[in-house]
């Protein structure tokens, strides 16, 4: 289930990364009569392709909460798949640059919903002891989508039909959401969402099915499911009491919720402040500045993202042992160190034919994505998806991802002009912010490794629910035994 829904993560990665390969195809610019060396107009259109995508993503992340809370996680996934399919068709069929940009905005809207929704669903159906690995598949499949887009672009470069080169790559955006749309028909609804809707019997059945491989006898499986259901219901009772007293602005007015929101937004802000999407989206152009042309930049781009996918897989294996906060701190500092080296290579060797210097420039990009893939990519999604309580998870996650897209919008929109005017100095932004952020994160962010979603509430200062919970029948929601419940 976790990996089927991760097709949505793949969709985000592919749709996001596809523009990096498309912008490396001369045939794309020729079709829309854009002079790549034309300065202002070309830079504006290149910036708009990333900017509109990020703007749509920001809107989608905010729209997620009302959709997922009312329709449920599965229905929301299905609606999102349809949006992504329509967006891919519009881009592949574009006959004017405005049509293409509209498609990019819709694609951003769809993946903004998708990238927020997938880790929420994964976190709500995963056991505490392996939730890092399960939700970590979100980051792994995102980068796998990046890699597939890059290899598709590399293959399309050799097509004798110039128009096919970029149209086929853009049309491939619809494959993953089509598969997910079909696969969603067999996915169970989130039991935590079902409990929130007072559909306890359905939630119990799904929880019981989750433990089918853990217990040989049906009694043991039912007892475990009943215990987990009672814990979820107990936490929901406390959450509702808080929501009623604090109102709709609880995320801002309640200190423990506000702490979560700040942690989620800072995590996503710092993730993008490493410059990861600037490096990704404009990587082919960066290779051009290092004196590499034709198919070689596309090949290096594909190899870079394939390496990143492997690093994400390593992250999924170690995240439940090392811990979220420690991994993210290492990633921020290591990534900043790699960017320092990359900036030095660009400053010294950009525009020259020095193969050694340019080779080191490529190597430091791979070093950067090693730190980002192992320590940051999957980990940021895991952390943000698990820190919010059920009744605010979609809203809190949506605001956190909104921060990510806004940060991406600022950095990617400014990148073309910044690289043309101040050159390597633009990298200083991606050095200073992560270093300062790593210090703040290490000393102030609570660790969530190994805790259930209900127990995480305690480390953020909420009422202590889930320590001792007496199982009750699924059809008797009014009788909940909540022990050790303290007022914040």
Give an overview in words.
This protein is mostly helical. The protein contains 22 helices and two strands. A two-stranded antiparallel ribbon has the order 1-2. Residues 466-472 and 475-488 have low confidence and may be disordered. It is found in: Membrane. Keywords: Membrane, Transmembrane, Transmembrane helix, Transport.
CATH-defined fold name of the largest domain: Growth Hormone, Chain: A
User: Which of globular, elongated, flat, extended, rod-shaped describes the shape?
Assistant: globular
Based on the coordinates given, report the CATH architecture of the largest domain: Up-down Bundle
CATH class descriptor name of the largest domain = Mainly Alpha
- Alpha plus pi helix count: 22
Largest sheet, order of strands side by side? 1-2
Mean pLDDT: 85
Q: How many domains make up the coordinates?
A: 3
Q: For this structure, what is the CATH homologous superfamily of the largest domain?
A: MFS general substrate transporter like domains
Give the oligomer, counting copies of the same chain as homo and different chains as hetero.
single chain
- Which percent range describes the beta-strand content? under 5%
Q: Indicate the radius of gyration in whole angstroms.
A: 23 Å
The biggest beta sheet is recorded as: 2 strands, antiparallel
Order of helices and strands: HHHHHHHHHHHHHHHHHHHHHHEE
Kindly report how far apart the N and C termini lie. 36 Å
Helix-strand makeup class: mainly alpha
Helical content class: over 70%
Poorly predicted runs of 5 or more residues: 466-472, 475-488
Protein name: Sugar/inositol transporter
Pfam families: Sugar_tr (PF00083)
Domain Major facilitator superfamily (MFS) profile: 1-449
Family: Belongs to the major facilitator superfamily. Sugar transporter (TC 2.A.1.1) family.
